[in-house]
């Protein structure tokens, strides 16, 4: 049964417990604001059934788990705020997520993949071949992702938290290894960061996608080490954004 309701704003009410899956029955909703409460658990897949949803704010709660892929089908969604939760995993890349920036996801535990399609396109000068670092089975690595796009993030303050630094570090490791943190090989204590760390300095070529490399091994090592510095387990041990920019500029100058 479809329930008719266009707007639901329950923000700032100290509501606890899980977000009820029955929300998916309110398919006429265009605004859903549950921010600044104490909701916990996962975001229900049923939120993806809200086909007319334009505004979704679940920020400042205790939500965990992955962002449901069902949200990628919400073609009318123009505003999204999932910041200040405990979400993890990869941010969807399809549908409305192509337009969302890092500000929508800051202060989460382990989200990865924060650069939007438009920002990536700008950073690589409209995917210019001059900016390609290499081509491999997972696609292309562009120099822009190591320079202009990142500098734009830093200078505008959009990557200003340790959580975003972590996500950027994991993204660098993903690009170089063509592996994702959710791959089946990562079980038990083994994760992507540990795999890369164990390969330095003598086993780099065993974990790097060789088809993606058109640069010196020293530059690759510098990018790997930066990714590791950004993705340290304790937030206070992660490198700051200003130091990230300095290191990126140095790597860029070495690659030119």
Q: Output mean pLDDT.
A: 78
The parts where pLDDT drops under 50 for at least 5 residues are 134-139, 147-160
Strand content: 15-25%
Tally the helices: what do you get? 7
General form? elongated
> What order do the SSEs take from the amino end to the carboxyl end, as H and E?
EEEEEEEEEHEEHHHHHH
Please tell me how large the radius of gyration is: 19 Å
Give the spatial strand order of the biggest sheet. 2-4-6-8-9
Characterize the biggest β-sheet: 5 strands, parallel
Strand-pairing-aware structural class: alpha/beta
How many DSSP-defined strands? 11
Give the arrangement of secondary structure elements.
Elements: E1 7-9, E2 16-18, E3 31-33, E4 38-41, E5 55-57, E6 62-65, E7 79-81, E8 86-90, E9 110-112, H1 117-123, E10 132-136, E11 139-142, H2 148-155, H3 162-177, H4 192-199, H5 204-207, H6 217-230, H7 241-255
Parallel strand pairs: 1-3, 2-4, 3-5, 4-6, 5-7, 6-8, 8-9
Antiparallel strand pairs: 10-11
Please name the defining characteristics of this protein:
256 residues; alpha/beta; five-stranded parallel sheet
Task: Describe the protein's architecture and organization.
This protein is of the alpha/beta class. It has helices spanning 117-123, 148-155, 162-177, 192-199, 204-207, 217-230, 241-255, and strands spanning 7-9, 16-18, 31-33, 38-41, 55-57, 62-65, 79-81, 86-90, 110-112, 132-136, 139-142. Helix content is 28%, strand content 16%. The strands form three sheets. Strands 2-4-6-8-9 form a five-stranded parallel beta sheet. A hairpin with a 2-residue loop joins strand 10 (132-136) and strand 11 (139-142). 32% of the residues are buried. The model is unreliable at 134-139 and 147-160 (pLDDT under 50).
């Amino acid at each position: 049964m479809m329930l008719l309701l266009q707007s639901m704003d329950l923000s700032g009410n100290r509501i606890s417990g899980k977000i009820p899956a029955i929300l998916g029955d309110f398919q006429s909703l265009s605004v859903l604001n549950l921010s600044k409460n104490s909701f916990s658990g996962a975001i229900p897949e049923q939120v993806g059934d809200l086909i007319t949803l334009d505004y979704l704010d679940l920020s400042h709660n205790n939500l965990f788990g992955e962002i449901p892929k069902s949200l990628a089908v919400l073609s009318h969604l123009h505003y999204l705020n999932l910041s200040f939760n405990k979400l993890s995993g990869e941010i969807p890349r399809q549908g409305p997520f192509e337009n969302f920036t890092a500000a929508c996801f800051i202060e989460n535990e382990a989200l990865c993949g924060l650069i939007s399609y438009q920002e990536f396109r700008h950073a690589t000068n409209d995917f210019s071949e001059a900016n390609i670092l290499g081509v491999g089975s997972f696609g292309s690595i562009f120099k822009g992702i190591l320079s202009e796009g990142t500098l734009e993030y830093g200078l505008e303050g959009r990557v200003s938290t340790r959580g975003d630094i972590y996500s950027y570090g994991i993204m660098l490791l993903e690009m170089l290894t063509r592996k994702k943190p959710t791959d089946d090989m990562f079980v038990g204590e083994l994760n992507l960061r540990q795999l890369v760390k164990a390969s330095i300095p003598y086993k780099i070529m065993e974990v790097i996608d060789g088809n993606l490399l058109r640069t010196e091994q020293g530059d690759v090592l510098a990018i790997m080490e930066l990714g590791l510095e950004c993705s340290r387990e304790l937030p206070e041990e992660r490198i700051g954004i200003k130091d990230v920019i300095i290191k990126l500029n140095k790597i860029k100058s070495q690659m030119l």
